[in-house]
Amino acid sequence: MTTLYDLQAATAQGANKALSDYAGDVMLIVNTASKCGFTPQYAELQKLHEQYADQGLRVLGFPSNQFGEQEPGTDSDVQSFCQINYGVSFPLFAKSDVRDETANPVFRYLTEQAPFRGFDTSEPSGKMLHSFLSEKLPHWLGDDSVKWNFTKFLVNRQGQVVGRYESTVEPLSMASDIEALLADSK
């Protein structure tokens, strides 16, 4: 049976990075985009990185252009944008697809382990995203794949996916969940 640690992902610099390099750490894996309404979440992801990296949190960004072509630039463009606008210092991987047949194997694995449970439609952004997808891409709501940019997956120190947070969930609201995982010994 494949585990997250069996997978690799291409870095923005073109090398392959084994996810087993993060064994023993808590990972927050996020698909990102530079021209999305949720792009300001980069600031909160960076805050989480700064606050918890020394305790073992690894924020890993995976840029994707699959949602409204909101990540049109090169890997170098993405790196520059994130550094200049949000001071991002956590790893950003190479652009890749995160849904459908061409999905990065990391995201195929994550969505198998943490199925889509819907949006919180009591929140305005959750209601808006659900309505948009219902109207424009209704078939997307019927599977477990990533629905939009900034879907976040939380992975414990043993490499198990323990949480999925949809695009509308602000990263800082996940702090208590992250702290609980960090408190678990290796």
UniProtKB/TrEMBL annotation:
- Mind telling me what this protein is named? Glutathione peroxidase
Kindly list the organism's lineage.
Bacteria, Bacillati, Bacillota, Bacilli, Bacillales
List the Pfam families hit by this protein, alphabetically: GSHPx (PF00255)
Which domain of life does the protein's organism represent?
A: Bacteria
Q: Which family does it belong to?
A: Belongs to the glutathione peroxidase family.
Which UniProt keywords are present, listed alphabetically?
A: Oxidoreductase, Peroxidase
